[in-house]
Amino acid sequence: MAYAVSLSLQYYRLGGFAGLHNFAYAFQDRLLGESLRATLLYMVIAVGVELLLGLALAVAVQRTIRGVLGRTLTYLLFIVPMVTPPVAAGVSFRLMYIPEYGILNVLLRTLGYHGPPILWMSSPAMAMFSVISVDVWQWMPFVFLVLFAGLQAVPADVIEAAEVDGAGGWARFRAMEIPYLKPLLLLVLVFRCTDTLRVFDHVQVLTMGGPGAATEFLSLYLYKIAFKFSNLNYASALALYIVLAVSALFGVFGRYLSEEVA
Amino acid sequence: MAGRRSPWRTAVLIALAGLAVVYLFPFAWMLSTSLKPTPELYTQPPTLWPVHPSLEAYRAALFGARDWVLLRNSLVVCLAAVLLTLALALLIAYPLTRLQVSASFRRGLLSWLLSLRFLPSMVVVIPIFATMRAVGLYDRLLALVLIYAAFSLPFAVWMLKGFLSEIPPEVEEAALADGAGRWRAFFQILLPMLSPGLLAASVITFALSWSEFLYALILTATPRSQTFSIAVWSFVTEFEIIWNQMAAVGVISALVPVVLLLAARRYVISALTFGAVREKA
User: Fold this and answer.
1) To 10 degrees, the CA torsion angle through A94, A98, A99, A105?
2) Phi and psi at residue A10, in whole multiples of 5°?
3) Which position among A44, A180, B136, B262 has the lowest Cβ density within 10 Å, counted as fewest Cβ atoms?
4) Distances (CA, A) of A4 to A10, A234, A237, B126, B127
5) How far is A84 from chain B (nearest CA, A)?
6) In chain B, what residues touch A137 (CB-CB under 8 Å)?
7) Do the chains contact at A60 and B26, CB–CB below 8 Å?
8) Does the residue A253 lie in any domain?
């Protein structure tokens, strides 16, 4: 870490002390701005969809599937994507997204779509969609598993009492389940947000940051600067900014989290 | 009551069945692609399942492209990382749970370890890269072993701590009273009781190291030290992508951790969600 600080204070190629040059340069870097925008977009959409879907699914399964077998099957279905290496997940989605031979466009055609084939990875908006879809596919199960476990902790007698008093499904959800899930929702939010900051593997396989810089997220941008352009100094400065941001996030939630989890 | 709920139940079951398709289809398609001989890749419309399934792609990828070397590298790295992680994690977790340690120290150490989980790996990769190059470990398997062990350590300590604190200290005290030394009590009594925890920690460490891509990409340059993730990725960068071979290595890469984790699922779910989910499946 100290080494990163010292690197960030030096000039690229020339060596020597540069003061805060690298840190200041970040503010003029237009590509960095675009990368930040892409990262935020990715974070908001991916985490948002994962949370909503995961929550809805957890509540739905909790209320309707009661048998041990059904629950076990659900569990097994959802740990599989979580443990698939992101690189392999990227490969399997890339195979489906090939414009000419990929299965998705063929399916669309049989469903009655007759326009030009959709270029899943070479138009900016679709590339973003493709990359996010992998994230949702892979990490919605995590949200589901955590929240579902949280629902088990809601005492059954409280719910029965409420049902006797005539509380409907929605009231039950708002008044009883949400308070129990709050810490877990927060936990999942922090996990997923910090994870999207470092998303790298499946993007590298699917789009490599392209087309243009449409899916060049922070980690990919950093990788490019550090290892394609070999500017370790500027990259270190950017990395330290990220550390600051993540520590701030962790400082706010971390105390709370470690109390919840420990 | 039951009558009112049944349409919902059907709806949820249908939704789950739909999700099952969404979740399993990518695997099925990858498997199917990997079994297609090359000409069949380009038939229009694509066949859902290969008409003439063959293992040609696997053979070509593993032996033709010599990726079996990378497969071997991956196995070596993962096993070494597992051993190192377990040894270190025991060294930390055992004193934390068995000896007199102040509560604030214990809490501080544990939450510091937890915080490491949130550090974007992109951030530490630069100093690590520079350090490894300086000490001559660049493009060596040892570099990856050290890094994977370091990164799995927080997980492993948290897990072993949980398992250790469920074993009552009286068991060891009894052994000590019967005249066993501290070492003997540790190796002959505690370790066997701890084996589910050790197993779970090994499986997770193995799977994490197996899937790791970023460090493998940055710290290696030649087949001498590249791992299997790199093999998977390198098919993407080829000028002409050989889809069936890419699918074949993808299948292998996904199969290893999935099989491992399904086998040890009882302990692993709880660990993956940092203890939020306990005793399930």
Assistant:
1) -80
2) -105, 155
3) B136
4) 10, 10, 8, 7, 5
5) 5
6) 22-23, 26
7) no
8) no
| Share of residues in chain B with pLDDT > 90 (%) | 4
- How far B34 CA sits from the closest chain A CA (Å)? 10
Q: Which residues of chain A make contact with B257, given a CB cutoff of 8 A? A: 83-85
Identify the residue whose tokens are 């300590």.
B157
Q: How confident is the model at residue B117 (pLDDT cuts 50, 70, 90)?
A: low
Closest to A187 (Cα-Cα) out of A258, A94, A138: A258
Asked whether residue A91 is domain-assigned, the answer is yes
CB A146 within 8 A of CB B276: yes
Which carries the bigger pLDDT value, residue A12 or residue A26? A26
In tens, the pLDDT along B3-39 reads 445 777 788 888 888 888 888 888 888 888 888 887 7
Q: Quote the domain boundaries for residue A218.
A: 51-237
| Closest Cα in chain B, distance from residue A153 (Å) | 10
Q: Which residue shows structure tokens 């389940």?
A: A177
pTM above 0.80, yes or no: no
Rounded Cα gap, residues A21 and B213, in angstroms: 32
Q: What is the CA radius of gyration of chain A?
A: 22
Q: Which long-range contacts (CB under 8 A, 24 or more apart) does A102-108 make?
A: A102/B46, A103/B29, A103/B46, A103/B48, A106/B45, A106/B46
Average pLDDT over chain B reads 78
pLDDT of residue B84: 93
Question: Cβ distance A134 to A89 under 8 Å?
Answer: yes
What is the per-residue pLDDT for B97?
Answer: 78
Q: What is the CATH number of the domain that holds A120?
A: 1.10.3720.10
pLDDT range class, residue A25, cuts 50, 70, 90: low
- Residue A191 maps to a domain: yes
- Nearest Cα to Cα of residue B76 among B181, B224, B219, B204: B224
Task: Pick the closest to residue B125 from A4, A17, A157 (CA basis).
Answer: A4
Residue from B111, B268, B279 nearest B205 by CA:
B268
d(C-alpha A112, C-alpha A102), whole Å: 17
pLDDT digits (tens, 9 = 90+) for B59-116: 777 777 667 788 888 888 899 999 999 999 888 888 887 777 777 777 777 777 776 6
**Is residue A246 one of the residues assigned to a domain?**
no
Q: What is the DSSP track for B77-96?
A: HHHHHHHHHHHHHHHHHHHH
Measure A21 CA to nearest chain B CA, in Å: 19
CATH class of B57-272: mainly alpha
Most confidently predicted of A135-144, B97-106, B169-178, B218-227: A135-144
Q: Among B13, B126, B261, select the one facing A226 at the smallest CB separation.
A: B126
Of A86, A96, A194, the CB nearest to B118: A194
The residue in chain A having the minimum alpha-carbon distance to the alpha carbon of residue B49 is A103
Helix (H, G, I), strand (E, B) or coil at A17: strand
Say how many domains are in chain A: 1
